[in-house]
Amino acid sequence: MHVVGIVAEFNPFHGGHGYLIDKIKEKYPDSLLISVMSGNFVQRGEPALYDKWRRSRVAVENGIDLVVQLPTRFSNASSYFFSYGAIEILNSLGVNTIAFGSEIGDLNKILEIANVLYDNSSQLNEYAASRVKDGISFPKARDEFLKSRLVDSYLFSESNFSGKFSIAPNDILGIDYILSSKKISYDGDFFVVKRIGLEHNLSASIIRDNFYSQNPDLLQSLQDRFFAVLASKMSAVISNDFLQTKSTYDFELYNTLKKEWRTAKNTQDIENILVNKMHTRARVRRFLISILMGVDMPYDSNACGYNLIYPLAFNTKGARYLKEIKNNKINIGFLDGIKTNYINLDESLKTISEEEIRATDIYNILMSNDLYKNCEFVMNPQFIEIQP
């Protein structure tokens, strides 16, 4: 059986996701489709609009056979480490093909960009560091670097290199999937689906904006709770001893925060204090979430920390494959629900389980959810029966 994997946050599920699933099933009609999905906090550095159990259920109802969670330590990280964690899981699940949506829509072009970045990573970092000193953001510096390396490329010859050259966020994710696959020795292939425009589907960000514009009280409550929890955490953890365990980037943010956080009136104020050319708003938001949960963001793929397969939802086909894969040797951990396994877990699985317990508890506090009914000890992987 051909197994196809995708990475999606379904925050929320929308027409673009459905389009990707349809295209995969056209290409691989008898395949099993697995999705790695962020948990209750997404890569933009925000709590998800709906909890992970609801989002994974909707995904299965719309064509995914098996949804497994990307641990929070990866979903709350930069694009590369987000991708690294997801691809490691898909590789461990034995996928033959990794599919993703793309603005470019041309796998050969995406592979060429990935190869340039892979072969010139040190040069890129040096160039970006010099440009950041000039007030240029890292994404813009990366685009400049790529433009200089691709100017003689046959595949990009039709592009207008005399004007602006930029890589869209969705393409950056696709490129990072490929870079991550090189690191973990994934030996499958890739399938790229060109994304369709907003005239066909609303984006997830527009859907979220519309939801909160229609429910301003919910948004205000979320923001107020986030600031209150964040302030209590900062008062407890901002110390020199705590700072010494962090990376250089974390140290810079913590040092600024330690001096300035008491002047902030809300989370927006804190973000404005920390955002600069080196640290984007999404990066700062992920940093603040890491404070809430006490989860460090990875900066080195050689020390990303433990990863695992954590099923959230599946249909009959997905359940059958899950049983099959559990009987085989998996090179990362497997967590079949925290409720029944937590006490007997080895230390590595227990550590990552504790992170998910905290993440879900904090999410429920922020979203005013029932703290018992929605906690990790009560919720379990869901079997979704799909009617023919």
**Low-confidence parts, pLDDT < 50 over ≥5 residues?**
none
Percent range for β-strand residues: 5-15%
Biggest beta sheet attributes? 7 strands, mixed
User: With helices defined by DSSP (H or I, 4 residues minimum), what is the helix count?
Assistant: 16
Global geometry = globular
Structural class: alpha/beta
Distance between the termini: 20 Å
Helix content: 40-55%
Strand order of the largest sheet: 7-6-1-2-5-9-11
Number of strands: 11
H/E topology pattern: EHEEEHEHHEHHHHEHHHHHHEEHEHE
Structure notes:
The chain is of the alpha/beta class and 388 residues long. It is 51% helix and 11% strand. The chain is built from 16 helices and eleven strands. The protein has helices at 15-27, 52-61, 72-75, 79-92, 107-119, 121-133, 138-150, 169-183, 204-214, 216-237, 240-243, 248-260, 267-274, 281-293, 316-326, 347-366, and strands at 3-7, 32-38, 41-42, 46-47, 66-70, 97-102, 189-194, 308-309, 311-314, 333-334, 382-383. The longest helix is centred in the middle third of the chain and has 22 residues, at 216-237. The radius of gyration is 21 Å and the shape is globular.
